Amino acid sequence: MSNIIELFGKGVASEQDWASVVAGQQCPFLGKRCYKVRKSNPEISIGTCSVMYGRDPSPVLICPTRLLERNQIFIDCIHLLTTHDVGNELHVVSEVGIPGGNVDFFLVSVRDGKVRDFVGIELQTLDTTGTVWPERQRAIIELGLHPADDAAESNRPFGMNWKMTAKTILVQMHHKVTTFEHVNKKLVLVVQDKLLNYMKTEFKFDHLHDPALIGDAMHLHAYSFAKREDQTFGMSLASRLSTDADGIGQCLGLQAEAKIELEAIVSVLESKIGPSTRLQLL
User: Fold this and answer.
1) Strand 186-192 vs strand 4-7: parallel, antiparallel, or unpaired?
2) Which of 170, 151, 185 is nearest to 40 (CA)?
3) Closest residue by Cα to residue 207 from 181, 238, 241, 167
4) In tens digits, what is the pLDDT along the chain, a chain of 282 residues?
5) Are 102 and 95 in contact (CB under 8 A)?
6) Which long-range contacts (CB under 8 A, 24 or more apart) does 31-38 make?
7) Which of 42, 43, 7 is nearest to 28 (CA)?
8) pTM (two decimals)
9) Going by C-beta distance under 8 Å and a sequence separation of 6 or more, which residues neighbour residue 37?
10) Strands in 13-100 per DSSP E
């Protein structure tokens, strides 16, 4: 049996016109074609949103776009717009570059065409190793369709890159939240609860505020992902944590004191450098 749980946003156990779903290649969360395409054939969208992996009895999300279900993640960030006012419009702006890198989305409070407040929102799901294509093709067969290749017969496995996924996103958050702190705004990392639970076991998390404090610059929203009665799957907010840039540094083992000590050393050096200290090449 295939380990694919969802194709193009639809549970494989649900009743669908699967021939149309697969042929249409549409992502219901983006309202356009699924961007996850085969490297060897970019005309084919893979469409895998969630999978079963190992002995875990519940699905793992492998596509960040899957987190956009019902726009709930944006609704759950409205309270962080601390200067938002009744009557302001709410906008969602994607892919915004800031010092420290791109941010997936901004939830923006707007009045008379002017930005009154904003929250940055980053999405992260599990990165896979290997290829999910053979599993995807086995799912196609189980749905009564006929794949155009024999990949379903392949024994090539796929895996979950837990360590690299967690460390990479924490490093990125450490860079980006500094910018948000400087402008007194909030940055939210949205993950599946499985990924957050892994982070808690592999990194130092006991200093984070649980429940979250609205005054913190860095927030983590974790969502559970479970089957509904109609055999589709849905998300719900499971927990909220918060901290600041130094707190994320502590998660990674970076000591806040190191930053203070570096600033102190630089200050002393800058007070001493001058014409007399310039190195002369003889």
Assistant:
1) unpaired
2) 151
3) 241
4) 899 999 999 999 999 999 999 999 999 999 999 999 999 999 999 999 999 998 888 899 999 999 999 999 999 999 999 999 999 999 999 999 988 889 999 999 999 989 999 999 999 999 999 999 999 999 999 999 999 999 999 999 999 999 999 999 999 999 999 999 999 999 999 999 999 999 999 999 999 999 999 999 999 999 999 988 877 889 999 999 999 999 999 999 875 444 545 566 666 666 776 777 665 654
5) yes
6) 34/8, 35/65, 36/63, 38/133
7) 7
8) 0.88
9) 43, 44, 45, 46
10) 26-27, 32-33, 48-51, 60-61, 89-98
**Is residue 111 within a helix (H) or strand (E), and if so which, with residue range?**
strand 101-111
Two tokens, residue 278: 């310039």
Cis peptide before 211 (omega within 30 of 0): yes
Give the span between the Cα atoms of 59 and 193, in whole angstroms.
11
Given the structure tokens 């987190």, which residue do they identify?
Answer: 67
The total number of residues written for the chain in this structure: 282
Burial class (CB in 10 A: 0-12, 13-18, 19+), 250: buried
If 0-12 CB within 10 Å is exposed, 13-18 middle and 19+ buried, where does residue 137 land? buried
Instruction: Identify the sign of the CA torsion 212, 255, 163, 167.
Output: positive
Q: How many helices (H) and strands (E) does the chain have?
A: 7, 14
